[in-house]
Amino acid sequence: xxxxxxxxxxxxxxxxxxxxxxxxxxxxxxxxxxxxxxxxxxxxxxxxxxxxxxxxxxxxxxxxxxxxxxxxxxxxxxxxxxxxxxxxxxxxxxxxxxxxxxxxxxxxxxxxxxxxxxxxxxxxxxxxxxxxxxxxxxxxxxxxxxxxxxxxxxxxxxxxxxxxxxxxxxxxxxxxxxxxxxxxxxxxxxxxxxxxxxxxxxxxxxxxxxxxxxxxxxxxxxxxxxxxxxxxxxxxxxxxxxxxxxxxxxxxxxxxxxxxxxxxxx
Length: 266
Prior knowledge:
Elements: E1 2-5, H1 17-25, E2 28-31, H2 34-43, E3 50-52, H3 58-70, E4 75-77, H4 91-99, E5 104-107, H5 112-120, E6 128-132, H6 137-147, E7 154-158, H7 163-173, E8 178-183, E9 191-196, H8 197-203, E10 212-216, H9 223-238, H10 243-254, H11 258-265
Parallel strand pairs: 1-4, 1-5, 2-3, 2-4, 6-7
Antiparallel strand pairs: 7-10, 8-9, 8-10
Helix pairs in contact: 3-4, 6-7, 7-8, 9-10, 9-11, 10-11
């Protein structure tokens, strides 16, 4: 069995009892960084056999571990923080295990995405996680153009080193867009900077320290745009599509609320 274990994003007390039990009972624990995982285990008095599993050896380790899983060994997969496979190594092993018919179970826990979203105060009925922001300015501008049509909040990761450039780019494209920069979530020096993109960009003219998560507020969609979206829903329904399916398709393409489109189209 492969157990995918969520680990704390900062505060070591945020680990679940179920994850601790799984780490203690596993035949092998795969870690993005064995040193960091060892700190977590020692903090909670857990003894385990550790093996590194990171982006540079993911393919090799998958080939090594898969036969052990097939043989019935119990393997726990962790990352440095959060849930493996979400912007962290793990997806390759999970897919290989499933294809081989190995049981895969996921032990949920801390999430930087959802923690930052709630902390930001910008929660909507839906949101989009886009992973790490693009490195190149051209790609960032293309993303900002796309976000201008999304009527829901967006969560993204960014490195401290690239944060000032990314914020300056966002502020130039959408200066009044609501924004929250969440730094060192759940840790001693946790900081959340909220305001417009232009205001927050001024606070981070220099690279900060620590882990960074951005929450970009929903764009304001004008009524005329919604009328066009409703017309598109009506056309799809007339063509034979189910109303909920039509609302879902148009919502994905336009960024409007699926539920709002569905209700308004009745």
